[in-house]
Design a protein that fits this description.
Elements (H helix, E strand, L loop, with lengths): L1 E6 L5 E6 L6 H10 L9 E4 L23 E6 L3 E3 H20 L3 H4 L8 H23 L7 E3 L1 H21 L9 H28 L27 H17 L2 H28 L16
Parallel strand pairs: 1-4
Antiparallel strand pairs: 1-2, 3-4, 5-6
This protein binds NADP nicotinamide-adenine-dinucleotide phosphate.
Length: 299
């Protein structure tokens, strides 16, 4: 059969492709590229609607219920960069930036001889644990379904993480920094540590859902690890735990910029969680009805 590919922007014809029921989206992308109608498959996005979701490479003509003459909408995603490269740059930056300011460079603070408070020292330890964990997860835990992402994301994501790291670190390590009470420090630290363990547990559970070398997606369910019980209540418990970590960090440092970082991350992760929750419900007819997206019983 023939499938028509048109541009997502103006519905202008790009090519007519030959397909069989078992032909995958990846194979159609390769056809477009070998016919010199489009750049490399990694740059190509194909959709069922002009503004619909990007079809995954493993989907087939049959499971998308495409027929003779069906249309696919094409978008060039622009230059690409390795997903892992972006994540590594994204996470190494805030680690380096935070620790650099932790040393109170003359450039920012002038000549300082005030002793650093032990809370600021612990904050540097917690911050480092979080980003070293993320770096190690990127290298050894996550099984991503995409190898690349648009190059622009590198600049967008790095600016967000690097600038926020500088903003938070500047205030926590400032010679005039006022630490919280011991009680607040203990409560904040406990929340931070528990949420970091929860976040790691969810990432391991997600890894184990996907066989190596595949892009399989399954309905996530709790495993033997008690931290994963949150899957009974929300679709993206890793985001719930991540927000919890930053709330903990804000309490333990009593620092307003850390609170702004927690708020910005919570907003972004809520938007993503709502989108992922919607996709789960669409993709799996047996998806648990009682689950929310990110906040149990609420959202
Ligand atoms: N502080 C902040 O502002 C902020 C913002 C965003 C993220 N983060 C942190 O970064 C972490 C990773 O973020 P993310 O957005 O990449 O998380 P994610 O979308 O939940 O994905 C984590 C990993 O699990 C895989 N996965 C997700 N659902 C799956 C399923 N149903 N079946 C099989 N595999 C599945 C993903 O593969 P795919 O490649 O297929 O998605 C990815 O490799 C978050 O958990 C959070 O800790 C922090």
């Amino acid at each position: 059969m023939e499938i028509e590919v048109v541009t997502a922007k103006s519905s202008k014809k790009v090519a007519s492709l030959t397909a069989h029921p078992t032909t995958t989206i990846r194979e159609l992308k390769l056809q477009l590229h070998s016919n010199k109608k489009a750049p490399k498959p990694e740059r190509i996005c194909l959709r069922l609607e002009p503004k619909g979701r990007a079809l995954s490479d493993s989907e087939t003509i049959k499971n998308l219920q495409l027929k003779y003459g069906s249309k696919l909408y094409y978008k060039d995603l622009g230059p690409q960069i390795g997903w892992k490269t972006v994540f590594l740059a994204e996470y190494a930056g805030p680690l380096g930036m935070y620790l650099w300011l932790y040393q109170r460079p003359w450039l920012f603070y002038g000549d300082v001889d005030a002793k650093m408070d032990s809370v600021a020292q612990w904050a540097a330890v917690f911050w480092s644990i979080h980003y070293v964990k993320r770096l190690l997860e990127t290298l050894f835990v996550h099984r991503f379904s995409h190898a690349t992402m648009p190059l622009m994301n590198l600049f967008k994501n790095c600016s967000y993480y690097w600038l926020f790291a500088a903003y938070v670190s500047y205030h926590v390590n400032h010679p005039l920094y006022t630490p919280p009470s011991s009680m607040k420090f203990i409560i904040g630290s406990a929340i931070f540590i528990l949420c970091e363990l929860g976040n790691l547990s969810i990432h391991i559970a997600l890894r184990n859902l996907r066989p190596p070398g595949t892009t399989v997606r399954k309905i996530p369910v709790p495993t033997g690890n008690p931290f994963t019980l949150l899957f009974n209540f929300v679709s993206c418990p890793n985001y719930t735990y991540e927000i919890g970590s930053w709330i903990g960090f804000t309490i333990l440092t009593q620092c307003l910029p850390a609170g702004f970082f927690a708020l910005a991350g919570a907003y972004q992760m809520t938007v993503w969680a709502l989108g992922k929750h919607k996709s789960y419900k669409k993709e799996f007819s047996d998806y648990p009805k009682c689950r929310k997206a990110i906040i149990p019983f609420v959202l």
